[in-house]
Amino acid sequence: MCPAPLIIGHRGASRFAPENTLAAFRLALEVGADGVEFDVRLTRDGVPIIIHDDNLKRTGATPSRLADLSLTELQQIDVGSWFRTGGFASERVPTLEQLFELYGSTNSLLYLEMKPDPGERERLAQACVEKVNTSSLKERIIVECFDLSALSTLKSLDPSIRTAALFEPGITKPPFVTSGQRLVDQALAVGADEIALHHRLATERVVKTAKNSGLTVVVWTVDEPSWINRALLSGTTALLTNDPALMVSQREQLASD
Questions:
Q1: Closest Cα to residue 213, out of 179, 240, 241, 239?
Q2: CA triplet 111, 244, 235: central angle to 5 degrees?
Q3: What H or E segment, with its residue span, contains residue 47?
Q4: What is residue 39's DSSP assignment?
Q5: What angle (nearest 5°) sits at the alpha carbon of residue 105, between those of residues 254 and 191?
Q6: Sign of CA dihedral 15, 17, 23, 27
Q7: 43 strand-pairing partners
């Protein structure tokens, strides 16, 4: 059984390798992360791929939008050279299938964040359901989303897929509310199994309310080792971090004290 709290690499080990690339996901494995979190969008031809933004300005040095590119066109673009350290020029935007292949022989958890463009909620949910169900990893996959309606759509397609309702101050849909019970109620209303809280929302009261309602609690994105002890005290199940090596090391140190 994995020690608590679980350490999940945010977009892989994204502090030391370009986010959402196979290099970052391999590194997360190497440093002992218990899983990874990643973002999924669709190419023009409907292939689920792993990238956070809806365009390649930041990571690919091109203004091209994902929705305008086929998979073949997308995989010609270098998404590693932008990173602050060299050696990643060969990195391309991976497909969801490639990530599943990489993690197929592991015990890692996979937090799949759906990033639906306007009007694409059902199409993205359907594509994710198909890939999850044709993989051997279904029991280790948690699908999360800020758009709670997208989680409802996914649950209507396959109620057995585990889901997490994402909340962040300022952009949450429905709009963020300060009451922990209201957050929990919104998560439960869409059939979520987990609640993924921005660290500013993860107060002791909110975490307790969520746990008492049967929700697994995940906190993101934290790189301060002090969060390990805080998670232990509150009963938080998992922490998403850009630096899984540091957080795993701190967890081991606390366990040995």
A1: 179
A2: 70
A3: none
A4: E
A5: 75
A6: negative
A7: none
Structure tokens at 27: 């590194």
Residue with tokens 């040095």: 61
Q: pTM here?
A: 0.96
Q: Where are the alpha helices (DSSP H) in the chain?
A: 22-30, 57-60, 71-74, 96-102, 121-133, 148-157, 180-189, 204-212, 226-234, 244-256
In angstroms, the CA 74 to CA 97 distance is 15
Report the candidate in 109, 2, 113 with the shortest Cα–Cα distance to residue 49.
113
Average pLDDT, the chain: 95
**Left if phi > 0, otherwise alpha if psi is -120 to 50, otherwise beta: which for 31?**
alpha
Residue 207 burial (CB count, 10 A): 24
Task: Locate 224 and state its tokens.
Answer: 């301060």
pLDDT above 70 coverage of the chain, percent: 96
User: According to CATH, what is the number of the domain 6-256?
Assistant: 3.20.20.190
Determine the Cα–Cα distance for residues 78 and 61; give it in Å rounded to an integer: 8
Angstrom distance (rounded) from CA 62 to CA 47 = 20
Q: In the chain, where are the structural domains located?
A: 6-256
Residue 7 three-state SS:
strand
| Interval 125-160: pLDDT, tens | 999 999 999 999 999 999 999 999 999 999 999 999
> For tokens 């799949």, what's the residue?
112
pLDDT at 172: 47
In terms of Cα–Cα distance, which of 251, 230, 223 is closest to 9? 223
Q: What are phi and psi of 220, to 5 degrees?
A: -140, 165
Gap between the Cα atoms of 25 and 10, Å rounded: 9
Distances (CA, A) of 30 to 10, 81, 248: 15, 22, 11
